[in-house]
Structures are given as C-alpha cells and as structure tokens.
Amino acid sequence: MIKTILSQTTADATSGTAKISPTFFSHARHTPDKQAIWCDGTTASYQELASLVCRWSNAMAQGGVKRGDHIGVMLPNSIEFAALMLVAADLGAVMVPLNTSLTPSAVHRAFEAAEVKHVVSTAALLKNLLTKSTTYRTDDSLPPDFSIADGLWLSVDKTIEDATLLADLLHGVASDAQPLNAAMEEDALILTMTSGSTGDPKPIILTQRTKFNRAHAAVELYGITENDRTLAATPLYHSLAERLVLIPLLTGGTSVLMQAFSPTAWLECVSQQNVTFTIAVSSQLKLTAGLLDDQDAIHRYDISSLRCIVSSSALLEHTVKSDLLKKFDCELHECYGASEIAIATNLDSIAAKSKLQSVGIPAPGVDIKIIGKNGEVVTKGEAGEIACKTSMLFGGYFKRPELTQTAMRGDYFRTGDMGRVDEDGFLYFLGRAKDIIICGGINIYPADIEEVVNEHASVLESAAFAFPDKHLGEVVAIAVVPVNKTEFNLRQLRFHCCERLADFQQPRNFFIVDELPRNSMGKLMKFQLVKTFSAHMP
Amino acid sequence: MQDTIRLFVLELLEKKSRLPNEFDDTSDFIKAGIVDSIGIIKFILELESRFDIEITGTDIESDEFRSVQGLAGLISRKINSVEDLK
Question: ipTM of this model?
Fold first, then answer.
C-alpha cells in the first residue's frame, strides 16, 4: 500500500511535485507509532522522528539557515544524521556530508569547494576544527581558517565554545512545529564527494528529485514494501547509505543503521533486528561470507529474515558470487553503477546462474550504450566505454560545468568504465577506462587478469595495474594478497597464469602485499598501487 | 630426451606463428619475430613448467636461446644438472 504512495508520488515527479519531506511526513501521519529508525540500540518512531525533523528544521530557519544554503555535515552514522537529511529536504538546504576522519585542512578544502556556510557535527570533531593548535597537513603553510563557513555551527551532542548545542537550538521551537515545506523538486539536496577512487574527488549535485527517483528505482527493482527493514552499514557521507536510509523512510518501512561495519556486527544486526533488505559493499559481503565458513557461526546467527541482498560499489569476483549464492538463502542481486547514476544494471540470482561473470541487465528506466574510441556506438560483444541514460542521473558537478559537459554524451553519462554487452543484453565490467593496460598497443583489461589470479588457491585477492616498460609502453603488474604469505609459491602462480592467460596478458611484475589499498567504501584505490610501484619506474 | 624437447619447442613456436618454409633447427626465432617481447614471458613459463627447470636472464640473453637446436641443448643440460643433484 505504502509502496503505492511512493510510486504515485514519483510518477508525479515527472510533472514536478515529488519531494522527499512531504512523503516522509505522510508516512508519519499514517503510522505514527511504527519504528522509523534503529541505530545501534537507539530507536525513533515515525512520530518521534517527524517531531525532531520539524523542530530542527524550524530552529535552523530561525538560526539563519535559508533555502539553498550549504551545510557541512560531519557526523557518525546516527539518528541525528538521518533526521538532518530530512531537515535539509524540508528547508531546501543542501547537505555536504564529509568523511569524519578528514584532516582539518582537507575539511577546509571541501568547505571551500562546496561553499559550505553552516556546519553540523559532534563536539569532538568541531573542537578538532576550531582549535588553532590542531595538527594540519604539512603541505599547508597556515592552519585552516574556518571563518569561510560564517553561518550556524551546531554541535549535536555536547556544549562547545563557538558552536550552538542542538538541544539549546531546539529549545526555542514549539513541540508541535509544522514542516516548512520550503524546498523545490529541482533543489540540490546533497553535494557528495565522489569516493575518491580516481584520486580527484568532485562534488556531485544530487537534487531532491534525483534522490527521490533513486529510492523509487530501488523500490521497483527489489520489490521493497513498508514491511521491509532496510540495513545501511556504510558511512552516511556516501550516497549508498543515504539512499538506504531514505528508502525505508519514503516507503513507510524501518531503517536499520549501523555505526560501523564488521562481519560479526553485521550478522548480529541482521539477526537481532530482523533485517530483510540491504545493499552492501561487495567487500563487506565477501568478509561476511568468509565468516560463514564456520559452522558455529552459521548456527549462531539466524539470518533467515533476509529477503534480498544487493552487492554494490565494486565488482564481485565470480567465485565469491557463487559462494554468496550458496550461503545466503535469499535473493542476491549484484548492481553496477556510479555515484553520478546510482544503479545502472542489475544481476539477479536466477540470471547469475548462467551469467555469473556479468553485472546484469540495465535496471528499469536505464539504457546502456557502449562507446568506441571515436565516440561511435560499438556492436554487441565489442568492448568500449559504458555510457548510461537514466532518470537517476546526478545534477552535475558543483560549479564545474565544463567537467559535467565532458562527462555527458547527449543524455548519456560517460562512466569512464570499460565494458561489453553480450548478445542477451548482459553487461560485463572490464575495469576503469584509465586503468586499462596498453601493452604493445593491445588493450588489457585488469578484470581479466585478476579473475584468473584470484582463482588460484594461494591467492586471497589481487589487483592488476600498468607498469611502465621501455619496449612495450606498459606491461601487466599485479599486487597479490596471498592466503598464507609463508607458504605462498610465486612460481606455481606464474604457471597458473601461463596456463590461463594469453601471452600479452601475462603479469611481468608480481608484488606480494599484506592488503590492497581501499577507501572507506571498500573501493580499490588502484592509483595508489600505481603510485607505489609504477610511478617512479623509467 | 633432446628429441622430445626439440618437438615441444617446435610445437610452441608453431602455436605462436606459422613457421617460414626455410625455418630449421638453427634458425633464429627471436630475430624472425616468432617469439617477440610480448610473447616471451609465456614462452619461458611454458618451457619451465613442462621441464621443471628455471630459465635465467643470462639464459635468455644467450645465443642458445635463439634457435631450436640451441634451446634444446640448453634445456637438456638444465634437466641433466637437476637430475645430477638428485
């Protein structure tokens, strides 16, 4: 029933009436006592959450926050963070969520790039920014000056000098405050930094409509209803967790929010909170599946409530995919996408049986094209850059129109990823375009090498990257994380590669490492490998 | 044994490229581009794997490494030295 409310409202979105906060408040009116959100032991009903959002929104307006203002947000995953998304949606303000582990200098740069005026954070984090003696990056000559954010500075938990305490701000607002409903559908809601796998974070504009459409697309694709309890186990400063919190709050379901991920905590949370749906980062699923090798763990955690799991953010190796299909007795989807387009393709459990190495077919309302070197659309089976047309498209890069223009080909977003589509319309991800290794003029796709290397029993995971070669331009180098470093036999692995890979694909340089460099979303930062091992080579 | 090695090397070369009519056991397959810088790693690994030997950088630089006859001799010696050690 409530799924229908969202569907209808979204349908209206095309004619310009879809907004996030009215949809949430509508659920709050229909099911005031229902649990809206749980976060590590703290809960709020729809009525409680709606009341907090209304009061906070009114208080922020009284405190000088206007429609279109940018709010820097540095908060751990919490009910306050979820509420603040709805506050911004009601006010028409723009959230700029940032990684809480950034240095003050990095925060300053982000504030500058995103034109942050107001700040919401914890006392501890604010203190870190405001204390002049704080450590800062050695490449900066002066401590960062945060007077650029000259609006409201709000601490959500404790009193701190130079900031207003949230409780004090709320004190001045009536308990029956009403929503402001000040936003327009095309207003930016979130400026999100890309997760940084390219080494060049760019603020991405996500409008209210984009966020709404993304939630709606997930509802359609995964059959989400008001009965679902949706788990978010990634940081809320990333668009995935934001979507995972908005999905239940816009469908009348329940949001289950973890502050931090560990495989054990994830299994405990699923079991105790009766989680039914989640989109997880592939590396999280891989770790969790590893834990389920242990029979005791299988019996300890009842995860039978899970109806549907989606793997996202990075490609799942197909051996891991088969393992997950065996261990999770529920629908398992893998999606491919990017912060700019959300979900582009989806591979469900049924298709996974015959198309295990694919990332699926285009999600409803999405069209995929594979673009060749000269900008032409290539024929099926041929590799090229993946371009995507979708209603979930971002609103551009903030204040970088030339970058936005370069990223688009008509209505299609150029992902910068390489892929090919088979005769049945299934997409195969081949790696980042810039990660392609060109050996003697031949394109080598890192995914092809990694797949073979990862098959070897002695290898936990690996990452292939370009290594300079004076004769061939580039050759394949590979960083390998062995299962057991002391027993690892490189010669056997090389023979395995010899047997399974073509001559041009043979890795020339093997680097044995303890772990691969990943960002907080588990996304491999290949540029770090290049920087460490390849950049200083002749 | 040397004949087995010779046949295996010839098979490998034939897999990489159609051998010229005038190609014989003394022909330089590196110069002829049959094993080029792209294919050489796999070529070496195939030899190492098949005969359980290790081919060094010096071996690769040597003249012996350029012809079927030379390579068969080099591999044969390596196999024998491994046998002697046993």
Answer: 0.92
